[in-house]
Amino acid sequence: MNNVFKGRSLCVIEDFSIDERRYFFKKTQELKRAILENNEAVMDSFRINDPDFGIYEVFLEDSTRTKESFRNAAKFHHAKVSELLCDSSSINKGESYADTFNMLSGYSNRIFIVRSKVEGLTKWLSEETSEYAERNHLPYKPAFINAGDGKHEHPTQELLDEFSFLERLNMDFSEIHLALVGDLYHGRTVHSKANGLKIFDKVTVDLIAPDELMMPENYIEIMKENGFKVNIYPSIENYLDCGDIAKIWYFTRPQLERMGERILKKEAELREAITFKREFIDRLKEGTKFYHPLPRHKEHPTIPTFLDKTELNGWEEQAINGMYCRMILLSLIAGKIGEDFSGQSAIEKDYKSEEYIVEVQPENKDNKEKNISEGVRPIRNGIVIDHICKGDSPEDIRKHIRLISSVIGLDNARGGEWISHGSDGKFKGIIFRPDVMDLSRKELKRLAAIAPHCTLNIIKDGKVAKKFRTHMPPRIYNFEDMSCKNEACISNPVNKEGVASKFYRTNDGGYRCAYCGKVHSFKEIWNKR
Ligand code: NCD
C-alpha cells in the first residue's frame, strides 16, 4: 500500500496537511501510552529496526532539547545515528551546504535533522540532495527535518507543542484559546504557530509582547487569513485586565542572541513586560497551564522557578513529549507506520499551471488611438505596455517603468515612456517601443511578473493587432536578476550558496520566497540595477 509519509521532508509545518498532523498526534498518543506502560510489542511496531538506516544530526546552532530528544528518539529506532561535528567540518573551509550534505547522503543516510541560522536551508537541501541521489543512483532520496532555521520555523517544536495542548484538551480539535507571551518577534516556535494552529477548528490567539518583540506583521496576517481571532496586548499586566484570559499560555524567552543593539539596550524593560510575577497568580483562570519551548534563562526566567511545583507547570511534560513526537516523526518518514492514514495529504497540493498572458479583444479604433496617442505621436509598428502601476504616484510609476524597461531588455530600443491618467483620475504608466515587434515566452513571463495587471498591445500598421492582459504568474524561478531580500535566507546572494530564487504568488498578490517564506511585492523581488 502507498505510504504518503515515506521519505517526506518536514521543513515548515505546512509540509504536513491538517489530516496528516491529526494522524501524527493519534500515533504519538499510542506510542506514549505504550512506552509509559512498557508495552514492548506496541513499541516494536513503531521501531525502524534497521542498523543500516542512517539518521544524521547536524546542529549548526546551539541546542539541548531538540538535539537530545532527536538523538534519543533515533536510538529508540535501533537505527544508525550519527552527528556531524560542525566545529571541525569542512563547512569551516568554505564548503557549501549542498556539497557537505550531498556527500553525507551518499553514506547511507536517509534522514537529516538540521538546525541552522540560515533560513530555508532544509528546503534547499531536500531539493539538492534529491538530484544528487538521482545522479549517483542511490536507492533513496534523503529526507530533511528542520530543527529550527533562524527566525523562520521550528516545525517539530510545533508538533510537540500542539500535542501537549491537545493532551490538555482531551484530544479535542474543535477549539483553542491560546496566549503567546514573550519574544514573538525572534521566536521561530511562535512563527510556526501561524499555520500550525490550523489543526483546530476555531482559534483565538492573544499576542502579549511590547512593540519591539511583537510578532512580525506577516505572521499576524497569516493567522488572520487562517480565520484566527487575534488580540494584541503590550504586557502580561495589561492582558490580565482584559477579562477574557486564555487557559493555555505559551511563553518564549527573549532571544538576546538575535537582537540588535537598539533592542538590547531596553532588555530589562522588555523582560519586565513578559515575565510572570507572583502577584498575578490569583488573576489566572482555574485550570490554567503554562508551556515553554525552553530553555529559560537561569537568572531571568520569564516563568519563574517558584512555579515549577504548581499545577501551572505544563512545560516539563511538554519537553518530555518532544521525544515521543520525534520518535513518531522518524517512524513516519522511514515508512514504518503511516499506511493506515486516510485523508488529504500535503503532497497532493499542486500548483496549477495558469496562463499569465491572456489575449483580449483589441478595443475599437477610437479608444485605441486615445490609448497610445496622448502627447506622443502614435506608433505605427511596435509594442505599447499600458496601465503600468495604475493608481500609484507618478514618481513611483516612473521608477517602476525604468525597472520594467531594463528587466524586459527594452533599454536599448527606440521609444519613450509616459505618465497619464484615466477618466477615474488615477495615474498610470505607458511604455512605447516602436520597432520591437514581439516578446519571447521568457520575456512575456518576466513582463507578467514585473508588470501585472497591464496590457501589452502589439501595433501593426497603426492598428492594435493583438492585445494581451498580464496576470501575476503563480510561480517564478530561475531568473538570475531576482532574489529574496531576506539576508538570512539560503537563496539570498550574500550567503553565496548559488541557490536560484523561487517565489510563489500569495493570495493577496505578493511573492513568497519558496525557501524562507518572506513575502515580497512584485516590485521588490528584482535586483537593484
Ligand atoms: C527554541 C528554539 O531553539 O527555537 N528552543 C527549542 O527548540 N526547544 C526556543 C528558544 O531558543 O528560545
Structure description:
The protein is of the alpha/beta class. It folds into 3 domains: 13-152 and 323-334, Aspartate/ornithine carbamoyltransferase (Rossmann fold); 155-319, Rossmann fold (3-Layer(aba) Sandwich), CATH 3.40.50; 357-473, Aspartate carbamoyltransferase regulatory subunit, N-terminal domain (Alpha-Beta Plaits, 2-Layer Sandwich). It contains 16 helices and 19 strands. The protein has a 6-stranded antiparallel sheet with strand order 10-15-14-11-13-12, with helices on both faces. A 5-stranded parallel sheet has the order 7-6-5-8-9. α1 (18-36) packs across α13 (315-333). N-carbamoyl-L-aspartate (NCD) binds at residues 65-66, 148, 154, 157, 188-189, 252-253, 255, 293-294.
Summarize the structure.
The protein has helices at 18-36, 40-46, 65-76, 97-105, 121-135, 155-168, 188-191, 193-196, 217-225, 236-240, 261-264, 267-274, 315-333, 365-373, 394-407, 441-450; strands spanning 50-59, 79-83, 109-116, 143-149, 175-181, 202-208, 229-233, 248-251, 289-291, 357-360, 382-388, 416-421, 427-434, 455-460, 463-470, 475-477, 502-505, 511-513, 519-520.
Average pLDDT metric: 93
Strand count, sense and closure of the main sheet? Answer: 6 strands, antiparallel
What characteristic shape results from the CA principal axes?
Answer: globular
CATH superfamily of the largest domain: Aspartate/ornithine carbamoyltransferase
User: Domains counted in the coordinates: how many?
Assistant: 3
Major sheet strand order: 10-15-14-11-13-12
- What structural category arises from helix and sheet content? alpha/beta
The percent range for helix content is: 25-40%
Classified by CATH, the class of the largest domain is Alpha Beta
